[in-house]
């Protein structure tokens, strides 16, 4: 399944472009200082916790999680593929991706361009002003996931 995930874009109905978009969505969450969303998603899919348990542990709204899951389902077309993507990519993203925007109360601060913003999604700011950093991290994450899946396959065989 994991070899199929990266070489064929999960399945024939899901293109590699959609897998990249889904990964970019997860990377943007980490860069926007919303790693709690990724941890909650991982706990839900890998450890089978409910929305209420995750909401209590990570203080993330279940509507936020439902929206994130729905966006991933729209891109990947099936729950099994979302589960596989979360299981393989979230640990790598949490480990390798830096935060760009920092949260300070209700404000978000971008140290790269020295801006503070209040009524704006930090993901939009990152994609608009720091797209090259996102693309660089996306490639780095894909290479790392491929490396780890190859190591796991050699250990198994």
Q: Your description of this structure?
A:
- The structure is a single chain.
- This protein is 69% helix and 6% strand.
- It is mainly α.
- It has one domain (2-156).
- α2 crosses α6, α3 (35-46) runs antiparallel to α4 and α3 (35-46) packs across α6 (79-96).
- Mean pLDDT is 86; it is low at 6-12.
Q: Which structural class is indicated by helix and strand composition?
A: mainly alpha
Order of helices and strands: HHHHHHEEEHH
Query: Helix count?
Result: 8
Count of separate structural domains: 1
- What does the main sheet amount to? 3 strands, antiparallel
- Describe the oligomeric state of these chains in a short phrase: single chain
What do the pLDDT scores average to? Answer: 86
- Separation, N- and C-terminal Cα atoms: 15 Å
Helical fraction: 55-70%
Beta-strand segment tally: 3
Strand order of the largest sheet: 1-2-3
- The radius of gyration computed from the alpha-carbon positions, rounded to a whole number of angstroms, is 16 Å
Q: Per DSSP, what share of the residues sits in E-state strands of 2 or more residues?
A: 5-15%
| Morphology call | globular
Low-pLDDT ranges: 6-12
Structural key phrases:
3 strands, 8 helices, globular, 157 residues, mainly alpha, three-stranded antiparallel beta sheet
Ordered list of secondary-structure elements with their pairings:
Layout: H1 2-7, H2 16-31, H3 35-46, H4 51-58, H5 62-76, H6 79-96, E1 102-104, E2 107-110, E3 115-117, H7 122-129, H8 131-156
Antiparallel strand pairs: 1-2, 2-3
Helix pairs in contact: 2-3, 2-5, 2-6, 2-8, 3-4, 3-6, 6-8
């Amino acid at each position: 399944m994991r070899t199929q995930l990266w070489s064929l874009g999960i399945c024939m109905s899901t293109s590699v472009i959609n897998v990249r978009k889904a990964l970019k969505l997860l990377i943007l969450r980490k860069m926007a200082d919303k790693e709690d969303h990724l941890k909650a998603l991982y706990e839900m899919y890998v450890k089978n916790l409910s929305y209420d348990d995750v909401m209590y542990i990570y203080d993330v709204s279940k509507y936020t999680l439902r929206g994130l899951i729905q966006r991933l389902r729209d891109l990947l077309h099936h729950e099994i593929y979302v589960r596989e993507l979360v299981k393989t990519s979230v640990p790598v993203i949490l480990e390798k991706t830096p935060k760009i925007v920092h949260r300070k109360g209700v404000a978000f601060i971008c140290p790269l361009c020295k801006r503070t913003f209040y009524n704006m999604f930090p993901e939009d700011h990152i994609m608009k002003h720091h797209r090259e950093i996102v693309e660089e991290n996306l490639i780095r994450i894909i290479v790392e996931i491929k490396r780890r899946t190859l190591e796991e396959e050699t250990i198994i065989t």
